[in-house]
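**Discrete fold encoding**
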Amino acid sequence: MTESTTIPNALDQLRLLGDDAETINSVLVVDDEQRLVGSLSLIRLVLARSNVLIGDIMDREFTSVTAETDQEECARVMQRYNLSLLPVVDREGLLTGVILAEDLVDVAEEEATEDMFRMASVGGERISGPLSNSLRSRLPWLMINLATAFLAAAMVSLFESTIERVIALAVFLPVVASQGGIGGTQTVTLVVRSMALGEVPRQLGLRLLVRELALGLVHGIALGVVVGLVAYLWKGNLTLGLILGLAMMGNMLVAGMFGAGVPLLLRQLRMDPAVSSAVFVTTFTDVIGFILFLGLAAIFVQHLV
């Protein structure tokens, strides 16, 4: 509709749409040269007096995109401003098309699925696809993960003599590693997904890192108290409980720091945070968790035997 259209004429135009008008809750307004100049809600149109023009009651503040705008960004804009339709304009502001909310449902699902696959390092793979595609998608990352597992094993081997003196240390190694791994995975999943939704602009990166560090500290204290108490009641050694509790607290801090820091760093380096963040984070939490736990045990080994 143009801004010079009268209210009765505007209503007549809507009636001509028939059943299609049932899905309309707002209309776009253009000038005589078809440049987008505003929008008008259907309720405001229906309640307006018949002697006014569309241009008198329309909202001149509107959100639009160009044909070059990425479809994911269009979905984010519509979600952010709760829009049912999004106008598309060219460089001169001429209205060239309209994107409806239902048009982007499949886009949002596709983008979410793609992010999830890439987080698991199976991007581009489908369950019914060729076996060769699955091998090319998964095997390289499995090899990388194997290399990082050997790195963690090498860290443990540095403390073989300590473990030989206190066999109980081997019992608690998976506890430290698994809690740090799941904590880091939780953080990296949240951060990468928030990045995909445009909820983490670059200027908020440091604030996000501080938040996850604080959260990791709280989690570490809570979990450290629990595992320390369990270790003391199980093995009857207070020093072992304290060491395990401190290692747990330190590893949860590491999980928070790297869970948020690795995706932020990859984005800063213009690399895709969804591709390899989880592999790096679990490596850091495993290696540093083992070093913290076994290193403290080596220092206080006299109190453990």
In short: The domain at 144-303 is CATH 1.10.357.20 (Tetracycline Repressor; domain 2).
